[in-house]
Amino acid sequence: MLGTDYTRRHNEVLKCIPLLMCNKYGIKLTKKLRNHSVQQIVSNKYVEIRVDTFVKTDIKIKHNLPDLIVIDKCKKKILIVEFGITSGDNLQHVETEKMRKYDLIANELSQIYGFKISIIPYVLTWDGVVKKYHEIYRRRLEISDRIEAYIQSLVLKKTLERDLLTSEEKEN
Predict the structure, then answer these.
(1) Residue range 68-86, pLDDT digits in tens
(2) Would you give the distance in Å from CA 105 to the centre of its chain?
(3) Angle, nearest 10°, between helix axes 145-171 and 3-24?
(4) For the chain, how many structural domains are there in total?
(5) In this structure, what are the phi and psi dihedrals at residue 45, rounded to the nearest 5 degrees?
(6) Which residues span the domain enclosing 35?
(7) CATH code, 136
(8) How far is 140 from 111, CA to CA, in rounded Å?
(9) Do residues 107 and 63 lie in contact, with contact meaning Cβ atoms separated by under 8 Å?
(10) Distances in Å between the alpha carbon of 111 and those of 116, 125, 150?
């Protein structure tokens, strides 16, 4: 898959979860996904939500640009969410790799803030298939069945668009 196609599809999915978090924590940007533009950092007195933002730490860390960080100041919790869309053969590997990849940054954030840290790999296949733990991760993110169905349909749509474009290019 072309890098730009992967990134475009990844970012479309990524757009859904920050909006969900903003609505959950009372940061009123918009209720409608189509009107929502993802901002790198939004916050109020209860939460700070960071999207694709470099995390400044005391030590140099290779992987310090998570897709989403939610810093809940009231509950003293930090949630790191990493998104991935992959093939069925790589699903388990990508899910495990995303957990491992951000373990060091989670430890650093725990020391900096003194908060409890959770890492959630939100990974599905190009055709919307998920692993058994996906349901647990989805519930921790408080993603409703409706939003999950929307995300899966979005992934399917973007994959189909890519496949159709690739097919047309081969014919020409």
Answers:
(1) 999 999 999 999 999 988 8
(2) 16
(3) 160
(4) 1
(5) -70, -15
(6) 3-164
(7) 3.40.91
(8) 23
(9) no
(10) 10, 34, 37
